[in-house]
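FAQ: What does the model actually see?

It sees only this:
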Amino acid sequence: MKKTLLSLAILAASGAFAQTTVTFDDLTLDTNSYWSGSDGSGSFVANGITFPNEYDMQWSYWSGGFIYSNSTDITTAGYTNDFSAYTGIGADGSANYGVNYGGNLDFVTPRVLSSIDITNTTYAALSMLNGDSFGKQFGSPNNAAGNPDGTNGEDFFRLLITGYDVNNDSIGTVTFYLADYRFADSTQDYILDTWETVDLSSLGEVRYLDFELESSDTNALGILTPGYFALDNLIYDDVAGVEENPALAFTLYPNPANGQFTVKGTAGTITVRQANGTTIHTAITNGFSTIDCASWAAGAYLVEVTNENGVSRNTFMKN
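And it is asked to produce this:
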């Protein structure tokens, strides 16, 4: 036990945590379903990262940001199927994955990003493959209305991932193609239907992550290809040189505990880690939260509360 407590102390003091992977599998879903934000919460937390969500309560539809899903529908075309990955499954064969529609990520405190897995949604892929009432069929020299569009079928759909630092200055952009029909050899043209890993390590320490989609199929109002993509396995180092802020100190009680304990004193994101750095619990707190620990193994855990002012940490003991 002394060795475990020492490991936690070193972990907290150094700010050097093991990598965390956002798999979305810590979120509960019924089989072949999705969470759209219809509860009006405005966001969800997956593996320590808060994903914003916009839901139009008047018209009852997901209008922007992120959702999470385990839908397997790879055949239904159109906007009614805006929640499905074109792979029909999460990355590495997992069930859950995220879907983005115009959403960006504010990490509040910097993160060092390693990589993210990306693929098409069914909505975007089938629009590019077959065309629809708005978007053209990729590879065709004509637009959706059947008129020449000047591309000669040399179409593309790409994702630009731009990182910003704590001063809101851009620190780099990573470009990834979700479809590419610009090859001299047309047999190489593709619409992505697999999960692919995108290396984000060149961005360094990131406070804010911007996602922008670009397409060769546009008009005066913007791109005509459905502006969606699916994501999974966002890998990051949780803290990048963030110093503890004594003003954010919080208390844990009872400590030790068997069934549950309370975190009191600081609003922000609660993250609980095992001694090896593995995240086992995340939640948003307004300064007073109760956490169920009944299923946790006995031992020491690192509890961290993070907000825009920094981070504070405490050690919790499970009997």
